[in-house]
Every structure is written in structure tokens, then in C-alpha cells.
Amino acid sequence: MKPNMGSGDDGKTNLIGKRVWKDHLRVEINGNIDELNSFLGLANSKINYDDIKQVILDVQNKLFLIGSIVAYYSDKKIKKEDVDHIEKMIFEFEKELDPLKKFIIPFGEEACLLHICRSKCRNVERLIVKLSKKEKIDKEILSYLNRLSDLLFILSRLVNKRKGIKEIEW
């Protein structure tokens, strides 16, 4: 794909084959998905655990799908099986962790990158909720993002545990 150099200089971009303002909610959502995906890529480049790296890569692919759905470019959907898969990973990775009794303060380089991803995921989720108040949005997208932020929290804790970094309770 070639960049459309100069085509957005008027403050507009293409969405479903027509020109829309760059502050259109769907454009804002996709910008936030892009940001989340970039931070996930950064986290993945720093993490040295193959199982976690694969999970992150799978999530990045799903985020591209969600972005294309939001932009009206895909007739594919996030399915209940996708949400179930995230839940399964949460339960599997949680087995390695001690139960959480208090809030924890983000700490540790890789863990903090995953915490940034978690908070970015929450931003995307809030924006999709905003869109869903105006237009019909498949509920599985919201379920997926909600579970994804939980998974990212679990992964941040897991990375620290595997690296021997003690959690800082608040």
C-alpha cells in the first residue's frame, strides 16, 4: 500500500469510500486501536517468553480485524469463540500467579508496557461504548476488549513473576 501523501491535508480522511473529518468517532477509535497495537508490538519486542509473545501477536491480528470492522471494511466478526479463547488464556496464565489481595502499582519495564496496553485497551473500549450508543455495534467486540484488558493485566503480573520482580502493593 502506498501512502496517500497530502490527501489528508484538509483535515479529512477516507472512511467507507467517502471523505470524513479526522475527528469522526470511527476514525478516533481506529487511531486508538493503532496506538494500542503499536504499544503491543513494543511490549512484544521486549518480552522474552514465547507463549506470551504468541498471545500478543494473536491479539494484534484481532485488533486489526476490529479496526476493519469499525471502519466498515470487513464483513468478518469477532466471535464468541474469540472471547472464550481470551478467557481460557486468562485462566491458564492465572494458574502461575498468587491470588491478588490488594491493588498493585505498575512496576517493571515489560510489565509497565503491558499496563500501558491495558489502559489503552480501556480507552478503545470506552470509545466503542460511545459509538454503540449511536450505532449498532456487535457486542462481541465489547466483550473481547473487556476480556483483553483483563488478560493484559494478568500478563503484566506474569512477566514480573517470571522475571522475579516482586509486586508492589498499594
Explain what the structure shows.
It contains 5 helices and 4 strands; from the N terminus they run ββαααβααβ. Helix content is 63%, strand content 7%. The protein has a single domain, classed as Cobalamin adenosyltransferase-like (Hypothetical Protein Ta1238, Chain: A, Up-down Bundle), CATH 1.20.1200. The N and C termini lie far apart (47 Å). It is elongated, with a radius of gyration of 17 Å. The strands form 2 sheets. It has a two-stranded antiparallel sheet with strand order 1-2. It is mainly alpha-helical and 170 residues long.
List the helices and strands and how they pair.
Layout lengths: L11 E4 L2 E4 L3 H22 L3 H21 L9 H15 L9 E2 L3 H24 L6 H25 L4 E2 L1
Antiparallel strand pairs: 1-2, 3-4
Helix pairs in contact: 1-2, 1-4, 3-5, 4-5
Shape: elongated
* Strand order in the largest sheet: 1-2
Distance between the termini: 47 Å
CATH topology: Hypothetical Protein Ta1238, Chain: A
Q: Give the ordered list of helices and strands.
A: EEHHHEHHE
Task: Count up the helices.
Answer: 5
Task: Name the CATH superfamily assignment.
Answer: Cobalamin adenosyltransferase-like
Low-confidence stretches: none
The assembly state of the depicted protein chains is single chain
CATH class: Mainly Alpha
User: How many structural units, i.e. domains?
Assistant: 1
Structure classification: mainly alpha
- The CATH architecture would be Up-down Bundle
- The average pLDDT is 91
Helicity range of the residues?
Answer: 55-70%
Q: What fraction of residues sit in β-strands?
A: 5-15%
List how many beta strands DSSP finds: 4
Mind describing the biggest β-sheet?
A: 2 strands, antiparallel
What radius of gyration results from the CA coordinates? Answer: 17 Å
